[in-house]
Amino acid sequence: MVQKFDISGMTCAACQAAVEKSVRKLSGINSVNVSLLSNSMTVDFDENKTSVYEIIQAVNSAGYRASVPGEGKEKAASGSDEIKEMKTRLIISFVFMVPLLYITMFHMLGAPLPPFLHGVENSFALAFLQFLLTLPIMYVNRKYFTSGFKTLFHLAPNMDSLIAVGTSAAVIYGIFAIFKIGYGLGHGDLEMAKHYSMDLYFESAGVILALITLGKFLESRAKGKTKDAISKLMDLSPKLAIVERDGNEITVGADEVKIGDIVIVKPGASIPVDGVIVEGSSSIDQSALTGESIPVEKSVGDHVIAATINKSGYFKFRAEKVGSDTVFSQIIRLVEEAANSKAPIAKLADKISGIFVPAVILIAAISTITWLILGKSLEFSLSIGISVLVISCPCALGLATPVAIMVGTGLGATNGILIKSAESLENAHDINTVVLDKTGTLTQGKPVVTDVFSNGIGKDDLIQIAASIESKSEHPLAQAVCEYAKQNGVDFLQTQDFNAVFGKGIYAKINDVPYYAGNELFMKENGIDVSSVKNEADKFSAEGKTPLYFAGGGKVLGIIAVADVLKPTSIEAVKGFRKLGIDCLMLTGDNEKTARAIAQKLDLTDFVSEVLPQDKESVIRKLQEEGKKVAMVGDGINDAPALARSDVGIAIGNGVDIAIESADIVLMKSDLNDAVKAVKLSRATLKNIKQNLFWAFFYNIIGIPIAAGVFYEAFGLKLNPMFAAAAMSLSSVFVVTNALRLKRAKLDK
Questions:
Q1: Which uninterrupted H or E stretch holds 253?
Q2: For strand 648-652 and strand 630-634, is the pairing parallel, antiparallel, or unpaired?
Q3: Residue 154, strand partner residues
Q4: Which residue of 62, 90, 342, 609 pairs with 592 in a disulfide if CB–CB is 3.0 to 4.6 A?
Q5: Which candidate, 287, 288, 286, places its Cα nearest to that of 298?
Q6: What is the DSSP letter of 292?
Q7: pLDDT score at 287
Q8: What's the pLDDT score for residue 228?
């Protein structure tokens, strides 16, 4: 069973690691995936060995809170309330922080102070006022203390633990200093009072809490922006539908539409569910799902998709997929799963985060003790320990990967590129070989007439005769000829005695005159001499086209060439892969001659012809055995084994529900250029992740030694705890902001 949970109380990657570790201890757990970005957890477990209740208890025992998700609206509302609550905390923190900073720092720069706060004799009042101004800041930010000490008690300290220990130490020392000031003043020891009045750390505690809350608020706002693509998709979901029941038109909620209902769609309305048009026609704007800006014409028998928009006409359709079964719902689920999944590169950050916070606490303790042993004052040594605790930032480590993944998958979704998982997105960045299925991927997927060569009769006459005798055939080549005739306004003639000869051709009479259509062998079997058109037929064959011979009255009338033509974007896409340094290989069931002709048009030298669907997988395996990272691009139906075998399976076309099962990446449009965009997106995302991880590691590698005073004796370099807090907050904001730059990635270039 796979169950999703909402997790509250997580603030950093250490929290994420603690939750995962706690749940993995239970029996029957197959996999656990915790997302810091969405504060959620997905668990795959054996219901016979453990239960949802036990999983929730395991999370709670680790110091966090787990619950089964409620309705989406409730969740969204609670998220909004959380930001409002954080904003309130921020305002209150700054209201008290500003006067606290004024009386502790600005008077040193000459700013005036009330007389009762001047001089050593008033140092107790000054110290006590600082304490009073710090208390409200600590109270509104008490979450750091409750969470920090709770997880510390459970031996799974997190970022809040660092903040709680650091600021508590500063405040406790400040209280100690107040007593020493009072003692000094009471016993006439003004030197003692002056000494301790200069070593108060209330402003450090207050400013640290205020700045960290500011950083968290900015981080939350920025994280919200990473979810824009998913939010925009969800906003497209229509809320109402007009259905026809008992002869009446009634308006119901989109979630109340049932399979088989006749749904009415008026101009400008969104389509509420998936179905098939039974009456009327229209042009449908599918840009939100496929990225195609041009509306698609739909008529009776065509499928329509939920959340697309009816531009002009009025039509009715029969509901076939409703609720979570619609293509739109699948897309939303796919994007959310990808955004919450974990890329292999994230495992590095996870491993480090699991030991990071305990290591920081140890470093802070060692630093404080070391400076005391070296003869420094308790105040100096304590400030060193507080700085180490505060500057360390597991938040940046925990956010480095998920924010980039969410922005990347969201950007893909808005471009009609659906990425199934973070692992798929990462794997796509280092593929060096792409295998392209010909039919439906490089080509249109259905044959069309490309050339007409008449022999002794008019071209229009040849088309009329050909289409008339082919009209009763269901063969794809025959349908191509008939479609061509319709497009050219040719009228069909009545035929008699129609007969199809499997694998060779057809026979029919028009006005009692026998006519034949088929291949060269069929012509020869019926005594038709084709020598007069043989050169043209060979020329068409060399170009990868199928020549259809037509004969009547005992002689050949001409040839109509039919081919599954290349998509307009295929040549451009192959060039795009080459620019990325990726080799292209074409797979086709066609004979070598036809395959070579197609390959030449694409400027491809590598192709495999006469390959059966079941053999495509072995081609992929062979390339992988040669050490190549292979992407397979196919239609997601008969290419399923090859898509599954490849390092990255890319399904192209409209069979979304089938393609999702076998492919890692699904392209909503039948455009091979989107496969190139997917690789570009992957590379841009991985580059962004590496930048984020570099910053997170570099920041801590440089920041912690400075905070610990490693460079103090040589260069006099020491970090004030307040600046440490500001730097820690800014590092998380930097990581999220850097990830947001992905939104501006140019996938078309």
A1: strand 248-253
A2: parallel
A3: none
A4: 609
A5: 286
A6: -
A7: 67
A8: 56
Q: Phi and psi of 526, rounded to 5°?
A: -105, 20
Specify the residue for token string 């009776």.
Answer: 300
All domains of the chain, ordered by start, with CATH? 2-69 (3.30.70.100), 236-329 (2.70.150.10), 416-431+569-678 (3.40.50.1000), 448-563 (3.40.1110.10)
- Phi then psi for residue 247, to 5 deg, are 80, 5
By the 8 A CB rule, do 696 and 400 touch?
yes
CA 295, CA 287: separation in Å to the nearest integer? Answer: 8
Which pairs with CB-CB distance under 8 Å and at least 24 residues apart come from 620-624? 620/435, 620/645, 620/646, 621/645, 623/433, 623/435, 623/585
Separation between Cα atoms, residue 595 and residue 609, nearest integer Å? 6
Query: Which residues form the catalytic set?
Result: 437
Count Cβ atoms below 10 Å from residue 282 Cβ, excluding itself: 24
Side-chain-side CA neighbours of 542 within 13 Å: the count stands at 6
Q: Which amino acid, 156?
A: A
Give pLDDT, residue 78: 45
Range list of H helices, 42-71? 52-61
Tell me if 316 sits within 8 A of 276, measured CB to CB: no
Nearest-CA neighbor of 413 among 678, 686, 34, 680? 678
Compute CA distances 478 → 82, 488, 494, 560, whole Å.
64, 16, 16, 11
CB crowding 564-583: b at 16 or more within 10 Å, else e = bbbbebbbebbebbeeeebb
- How many CB atoms are closer than 10 A to CB 3? 15
Show the tokens assigned to 278.
């039974």
**518 beta partners:** 505, 549
How far CA 302 is from CA of 270, 276, 282, 298, 657, in Å, comes to 16, 6, 11, 6, 17
Residues in the chain, pLDDT under 50: 71-79, 655-656, 659
Residue-level pLDDT at 472: 86
Tokens of 428: 């796509």
What DSSP letter does each residue of 385-431 carry, written as one string?
A: HHHHHHH--HHHHHHHHHHHHHHHHHHHHHTTEEE--HHHHHHGGG-
Q: At what angle do helices 346-373 and 394-414 cross, to 10 degrees?
A: 160
Asked if 664 and 420 touch (Cβ cutoff 8 Å), the reply is yes
Q: In what order do the strands lie in the sheet with 505-510?
A: 448-454, 555-563, 546-552, 513-518, 505-510, 496-501
- Amino acid 34 reads V
Q: What is the pLDDT of residues 189-204, one digit of tens each?
A: 999 898 888 777 788 7
pTM for the predicted model, two decimal places: 0.69
